[in-house]
């Protein structure tokens, strides 16, 4: 049904405009006050109501609770036994096994599985599906990617009183874990409430450490055993050596005795290449290098005093602060000292004096890092004072390459394990520098600000892609660098070899020139000394020399006085002679005049 409503209006009213006019006010409604309604209201006096032209807004912040994840695992040792069989009872298990083995279904099943297993084993022996055919020639084309680095995770010291992350060590199998040693190296400033704990972190879980290591003294350094990833060795602040087995808990399995340990903090400990995988050696600022077997830590197996005079005097020993050991050179090792010297040593020498082979000098402060190039072991890197230097074993006078002097102090450094021309350094201003001397020598290829506090420790993963930096406030920062900095470039080994050889040759020429100049100066000084010795008796005492000088002085004065007296006498004689000659001339003139008058 359609509903229609029609509006009607006069035609004259369509489109007519409104006409406004003034008229007096009209009262339409008058509502009288009602006093009874006043009880429902509260009088507000004075009444101020602010108004704003803009829209009123309020700011609120909401922070969700941090989700803490925890990894747990179950190790299934033995199971599948019936309820009436106790797996701990040997007789019951043997009886049940014999019962099962007599079953025909068991024999048939084993025969079927055996043939399938034999086929799989033969396949595995025939073809290795994981074989890498071009492992040695893993060279990538040069890309235009800019060098960069990004932060992956940050691991903070869980304690309220923050300590310095003094040591870092990557897990040898897969590098999925990072061991961090925490200690305060500020002498006598450690508080009583400061924790001694160090931690092992899972790099994918920065919220909570995977394991806590509880030493009796704060750990300064910590190293995983490359042969057994469950074992770690650490150097303590009080000079002791301790080792842990992660399967046996947080407390150390064994520790060295105080009387046979270092007297100062152990700044570096390194595992040695041995058949047992239990040998290590440590260095400390007390001037000793000690060798240990962790199976018997009651005393060191060997001891070396870093006395440069080769007399074994501990009072003259150089304080060791860094160590270097290359597995391809099992008898050689190097020590970086507080005095800025690198001491090259030979462990297999017959006498303690012969163990110190030579020294390299060139730094003005403690050598915090010392490492051989993994591709060219004859060349090694040192980091100290405000520079990093690259040395050659053949040249002891000076380094072959060095960085510029930085404004901030350098605290650690290391080579890249995959690129021979790349190394890393960290500084007190919280900066990480990546150097590629084939690309640029005067400035770092990449410089990144890791944190606001000072960086103290640095460790690179074996694949060269990830690196960890430890800071003064106990923060360990995990960084990932770009693929260009962790991938071997075309002809990089040949170019690095050529550069090392060229710089070594240049330094040898300069060293020979300096030696020649020193010989000339020495010969000149010796000639001068010989001439002086002819004139002066070197055996005279100071009093004799003074008396002889006074005598010579007065002799010279007297000689001068006599000389002047002789000159004066000579001048007087000459004057008298002149007077006589004048008188004789005058007399002759007078006689001549008299003769003329007589004529």
Automatic annotation (TrEMBL):
Region feature (Disordered): 59-85, 517-542
Molecular function (Gene Ontology), one example: dynein light chain binding
Coiled coil (UniProt feature): 556-583
Presence of keyword Cell wall biogenesis/degradation: no
Q: Where is the composition biased (Basic and acidic residues)?
A: 59-75, 517-537
Q: Which GO terms describe its biological process?
A: cilium movement; outer dynein arm assembly
Q: Which InterPro entries match?
A: Dynein_IC (IPR050687), WD40/YVTN_repeat-like_dom_sf (IPR015943), WD40_repeat_dom_sf (IPR036322), WD40_rpt (IPR001680)
Give UniProt keywords alphabetically: Cell projection, Cilium, Coiled coil, Cytoplasm, Cytoskeleton, Dynein, Microtubule, Motor protein, Repeat, WD repeat
Q: One matching Pfam family, short form?
A: WD40
Question: Where would you say this protein principally sits, based on its record?
Answer: cytoplasm
List where in the cell it is found: Cytoplasm, Cytoskeleton, Cilium axoneme
Its Gene Ontology cellular component terms are: microtubule; outer dynein arm
Sequence similarity: Belongs to the dynein intermediate chain family.
- Would you tell me the protein name for this molecule? Dynein axonemal intermediate chain 2
* Native species: Lepisosteus oculatus
